Amino acid sequence: MRALFLLFLAAFALAQAPKPLKVGELTGEALYPGNRGVSYGEVGLVARGLGLALWQGEGQVALGLGARYRTFPVEADEAKAASSLAAWRKDGRVYVPLRPLADALGLSYQAQVGIQLDLPWARLLQVEARPEGYLLRFSREVNAVVRPGGVLFLMAQGSHPSLVQEAMGLFLPLSRPPERVYYPGGGQVAVGLTPLPLPSPTVLLDPGHGGEDPGLEVQGLAEKEVALDLARRVAALLPGARLTRQGDETLPLEARLALARTASVVVSLHMARGREVRLYLPKDRTSPLAQSLPRLGDLPEERARLLRAYAGDPARLALALERALAAQGFAVVKAEGPYALTRVDGAAVLLEVGAERLGTEEARALVAQAIAQGIRAYLEGGAP
Predict the structure, then answer these.
(1) Looking at residues 107-121, what average pLDDT do you find?
(2) Cα 103 to Cα 90: distance, rounded to the nearest angstrom
(3) How far does the signal peptide extend, from start to end residue (predicted)?
(4) How confident is the model over 195-233, as pLDDT tens digits?
């Protein structure tokens, strides 16, 4: 009985010992962290052997094949890694569980004397040439690599006048590097030859109050009516600008915020007592896009400027508005704004215009011109 038990332990230990690993044409070693019976392979070997895309970041690693990918958190404790099917860091190298990876990316996984991980060659099904580039469809997801002279579709085979069969896959010769290569899914690879048009930043004007909420009433002026009139005047000077409300309607804060999250610039318009303009800015901002603003300095200036507009810089917007209003003789006072401003991705500020500067048509037109000028200057990169 004891001999049988020892034989069982020996067999179990042998099952957990490192085994030969073959990944495509490359060979390595499959490990079993924590003796959990889960085979792991070194992530670089797996990526090279099968032509997979590899991303390694702080605390995670991901492998991709076309539109399919699998992300693993990285654990240093081997038992914890194996029990949660996470990646495992050992001696400076990262290992990933092979069976979950195979299931996620459609790889062939065989466990016999050793472990074999493979990827069948993809068959070319269709090539569609378009003015803006090419759309290719394969029998499975395929990775594409841009190299001098064109694009290589790894481990793909087929026949087409535009493509050349090579040992590593199908090659698409191009006279210039593509603008982009992306994966729409369903085994498709799109090769774009023309630059994508950069979208124009959007402006949202939010007339305060409305409907059952009249706001402030000063000298016969109702804030909800003045704010809407002012917003319409500003919008008329900024083609493409939108309003949160078009008429005298009650609009809850959450509805306003939902609209604000789709805009690059948000200016909430209100009326106050007196002659000055009060300009409110968010103290902090919570959105990931807004918090990424300081890291845009390494991008080309044209794209960085556009991203700054989308990520939003309320301080720069406030400065542009302050300068435009001051040029028209308005005294501007800046202060910390309401919490709602912190929840907007774009540059969001709140303006309270003194009622004494809004009593006539001419006065409102002057205020609207200054606000529109400030927004325009901000979008053009002014007021650094």
Answers:
(1) 92
(2) 24
(3) 1-15
(4) 876 667 789 999 999 999 999 999 889 999 999 999 999
